[in-house]
Specification:
- It is built from two helices and 22 strands.
- By secondary structure, the chain is mostly beta strands.
- The strands form five sheets. A six-stranded antiparallel β-barrel has the order 2-11-15-13-12-16. The chain has a four-stranded antiparallel sheet with strand order 3-10-8-5, with no helix packed on it.
- α1 (2-26) packs across α2 (274-282).
- The chain starts with a helix and ends with a helix.
Length: 283
């Protein structure tokens, strides 16, 4: 009984494969020749760019912790959390006569004491952050650090907002930090953008590596490699598919530049397996 079920299962599988092949052969516009194992693609003129990709966070560039110079008691507080202050504004007065003032323009993010409360020397009484002077800090691993430089343009995307803006690398640390088995260097990107950034937001940044414009392009699917790892594409000669050697340039993982072997507007073919065709029928 068990053997009979296995045989029936095999018959059903063969039938499914046969139907898939028949369907694919019968579909218009794709793989109608020689068993339906090929689909066509037209080479085109296009642009390709490759990038170095990094991740990081929005960071505070200017902040102040207005602290007591010595142990004292708070006599007066002139600001509240959320207040916007200008450089030089009075923040608080202590019992020893110290007047704590804003050294930067920004927003009061914390008031850590109240009137008549004792504070220790060095204890921050008022905290200020300049939210108009934020910056981007990204990590560059040791393998890429020599490929980027101060002055390079970077496209920054704020993950939570889904918004992007262009910035410029203003600093690259020369002191490495360790992350697992890889060392990385922190790079600073100026964040002059019409985007509502907040400290701590995660970002991704990319810096141009290589780019070409108006070149012959095919998809990576169309590029094949022979037993000697030499690239080729498939073209149709009569009713036969033939391997045509090509010289390739850069690729972005989706498209590849063809330097020789294919002209713009030529048809190339992509070999598909039966399993590929079954996936297409399911889609």
């Amino acid at each position: 009984m068990k053997k009979k079920k296995i045989i029936v299962g095999l018959i059903i599988l063969v039938a499914i494969l046969a139907v898939a092949v028949y369907w694919f052969q019968s579909s218009s516009g794709t793989g109608s020749m020689r068993g339906g194992y090929y689909e066509s693609e037209t080479s085109r003129l296009g642009n390709i760019a490759t990038y170095y990709n990094f991740t990081g966070n929005v960071a505070v560039k200017e902040s102040q912790q207005a602290a007591a110079y010595s142990a004292a008691t708070v006599r007066e507080i002139y600001v509240a959390e959320g207040d916007v202050v200008a450089k030089g504004d009075a923040l608080a007065r202590l019992s020893d006569g110290t007047l704590l003032s804003a050294e930067i323009a920004g927003e009061v993010t914390a008031v850590n004491a109240s009137v008549d409360e004792a504070v220790a020397a060095g204890s921050p009484v008022i905290e200020i952050v300049n939210f108009d002077a934020l910056e981007i800090i990204v990590k560059i691993d040791e393998y890429d650090v020599n490929a980027v430089a101060v002055g390079d343009e970077a496209l920054v995307t704020v993950d939570a907002l889904g918004e992007s803006f262009e910035g410029q690398i203003t600093r690259i640390s020369k002191i490495a930090q360790q992350s697992g088995d890889v060392a990385y260097f922190e790079a600073t990107i100026a964040a002059e953008a019409e985007v509502e950034l907040l400290p701590g937001m995660k970002v991704s940044a990319k810096v141009l590596n290589e780019s070409v414009e108006n070149v012959v392009v095919v998809s990576m699917d169309a590029l094949q490699f022979d037993a000697y790892n030499q690239p080729y594409v498939l073209k149709l000669s009569g009713r036969e598919y033939v391997q045509v050697p090509v010289t390739v340039g850069i690729n972005d993982g989706t498209s590849v530049q063809i330097l020789s072997g294919v002209s713009a507007g030529e048809t190339v073919y992509i070999r598909r397996s039966v399993l590929d065709m079954m996936g297409m029928t399911g889609g």
